[in-house]
Specification:
The protein is mainly alpha-helical and 346 residues long. The protein has one domain. The chain has 14 helices and no strands. It is globular.
């Protein structure tokens, strides 16, 4: 199992070497976009290292308990390739991306049985008795979540540390029934991410890229929903585990509607961008230190809620209260850091 770590790490090193020594259109990464925060070329192929380290180890292993991991990698492959297209500088319109993600989510529904049964909200729960509603709900939710993971991938280590924390927060609660198949899934995912996290945080030697962000979004969502299904947890468990990216994407949609700009275009007004701008006012000359502080601050914000989600995994009312508390904290911090009058487009 631990052999996934050196494999991921070595593949990442190879792409760092390629970025520094081979000057081609696909290997170099220096873009002019609102969310770009680096000033020199950095490889965007960290996601390839995560994907192939998991694929290789799970394929060559004869362990039957790797079955779920193999199936998850299989259905997530189209998501990975969709994001990888952008990493190779192949432009795909945001609306088309979302449409493709929606269609790919059908694979999750029919092949892996990734379904939502209720939300513990009376009227809404009645709608789940209709399969078409359940299907549309999970497709919109999964596509939105995968896109949300890509949105929070803007600071060194930010997305990867969130994914690592999700895995660890589940594993450290022994009262949760984790079978060996799911345990191996979490541990394999943890070590595959850790191999690139070491190279990325805080020095930013390599990035996940859209391929990596989309792939991790798919794998984390698949794992959480399966975990919720097998252990008969509250549906709000999944919501609270994903509350950081969910809140970020929903608030981004709200912000762009108010500002009357496209909800599909990237910007630099996410919470991590605002924290970065505030940290940049400190007397820190190193970009690495700025990224370290931003990632650490967001880690401190969401980690208590991930731990709370696992501790109260079947207590719907407590999970709902914790969800509201996180959203309130997020919005409060956001408005404390945001420029005055920014929602009036001043």
């Amino acid at each position: 199992m631990i052999d996934i770590l050196p494999l991921s790490f070595c593949i990442g090193l190879a792409f760092i070497f390629i970025n520094k020594t081979i000057s081609t259109r696909w290997s170099r990464n220096l873009r002019n976009s609102p969310q770009t925060m680096h000033k020199k070329s950095v490889s965007r192929f960290g996601g390839i290292a995560v994907f192939f380290s998991l694929l290789i180890i799970s394929t060559i292993s004869d362990l039957e308990e790797y079955t779920f991991l193999r199936e998850a990698i299989f259905v997530s492959s189209p998501v990975f390739l969709l994001g990888l297209a952008d990493d190779f500088n192949i432009e795909i319109k945001p609306a088309l991306r979302l449409a493709v993600l929606f269609m790919i989510s059908l694979l999750f529904y029919y092949i892996l049985g990734i379904k939502a049964y209720n939300l513990n909200i009376p009227f809404v729960d009645y709608l789940f008795t209709f399969e078409i509603f359940s299907l549309l709900f999970i497709c919109f939710a999964v596509a939105g979540m995968i896109n949300a993971f890509n949105m929070i991938d803007g600071i060194n280590g930010l997305l990867m540390l969130f994914c690592l924390t999700v895995c660890v927060s589940i594993l450290i609660f022994p009262q949760s029934a984790i079978n060996l198949e799911f345990y191996l899934y979490l541990v394999a995912l943890f070590f595959a991410i850790l191999g690139i996290f070491i190279l990325n945080f805080p020095f930013g030697r390599i990035f996940l890229g859209d391929g990596g962000a989309y792939f991790l979004g798919a794998m984390i969502v698949i794992g959480l929903i399966k975990y919720y299904q097998v252990n008969d947890l509250s549906p709000w468990y999944v919501m609270l585990m994903l509350v950081y990216p969910v809140t970020d994407v929903l608030f981004s949609i709200y912000r762009r509607i108010v500002l009357k700009v496209s909800a599909l275009e990237p910007d630099n007004l996410h919470l991590h961008h605002l924290i970065y701008k505030r940290v940049s006012k400190l007397d820190l000359k190193s970009e690495n230190k700025k990224h370290f502080l931003v990632t650490l601050m967001t880690f401190v914000i969401y980690t208590p809620f991930l731990l709370g989600a696992n501790y109260f995994s079947k207590e719907t009312q407590i999970l709902q209260i914790l969800t509201v508390i996180f959203i309130s904290i997020y919005v409060l911090i956001y408005f404390l850091l945001a420029p005055r009058g920014f929602l009036r487009n001043e």
